[in-house]
Design a protein that fits this description.
5-stranded parallel β-sheet; 11 helices; globular
Length: 232
């Protein structure tokens, strides 16, 4: 029997936490704790050992970005973190993903999207829609000479794995990768898993960041792929 999904809610608005708790509980998700700021969230993770943390960005005392960094600093069995934000252009989203968050959600998500999100990241996947990939690309075009946060050596990857990583970074799902490469979807999943393992990455979000930071994929290539997809 599968163990119940354990979630921690970190948001400085009581009404938001109450609403999310009701939605998650109604779908069989166990909310093991709540926090009103980042410091409380870090402590609550230690006590409650959740599978997933829903983390607001803008909170008093310690923001969600710093809390995410502290939670995801190499502790075994660390939870997945989903960043919650009111605005899709929140300037902290990219930094949170670089810190190890598994994706982000807008606070106006539907109940179905909320529960689907926590179940998705629990399985080791990430919330990385093409629209979010575009935002990551925009950040790279603005960063100039800043130090790379997730730089990795790609020499350990096979040519096929490099090809998969490049397409993954353009926002393709496993099903789309399978179609493009004429492979079974299970084979694609194996390639993705090996890429993550070889590069020491948490999930697809970090794989996309690495693909751009190492120069494997450029912003121009992404835009060309986007136009090609929209025309088909």
């Amino acid at each position: 029997m599968t163990e119940p999904l354990r979630v921690l809610l970190a948001d400085d608005q009581t009404l938001v936490r109450t609403g999310f708790r009701m939605i998650l509980n109604a779908d069989g998700v166990d909310v093991v704790g709540e926090a009103a700021n980042g410091a409380e969230a870090v402590e609550a993770v230690r006590r409650g050992r959740p599978d997933v943390v829903l983390m607001d960005v803008r909170m008093p005392e310690m923001d969600g970005l710093e809390a995410t960094r502290r939670i995801l600093t190499g502790a075994p069995g660390e939870p997945r973190v989903i960043i919650l934000t009111t605005f899709d252009l929140d300037r902290y989203v990219y930094a949170a993903l670089s810190a190890g968050a598994s994706g982000f959600l807008l606070k106006d998500v539907t109940p179905e999207q909320l529960t689907a999100a926590v179940r998705t990241v629990r399985t080791g996947d990430a919330l990385l829609a093409p629209a979010i990939t575009r935002r990551l690309v925009q950040r790279f075009t603005q960063r100039g000479g800043e130090t790379a946060a997730l730089h990795r050596n790609l020499a350990t990857l096979t040519p096929r794995e490099l090809e998969v990583l490049g397409l993954l970074a353009r926002g393709l799902s496993n099903a789309e990768l399978a179609t493009r490469l004429h492979l079974a979807e299970a084979t694609v999943k194996t390639h993705v898993a090996r890429i993550l393992a070889k590069l020491g990455l948490r999930d697809r979000v970090q794989a996309v960041i690495v693909a751009y930071e190492t120069g494997l994929v450029s912003a121009g290539a992404h835009e060309a792929a986007q136009r090609s997809t929209e025309q088909t």
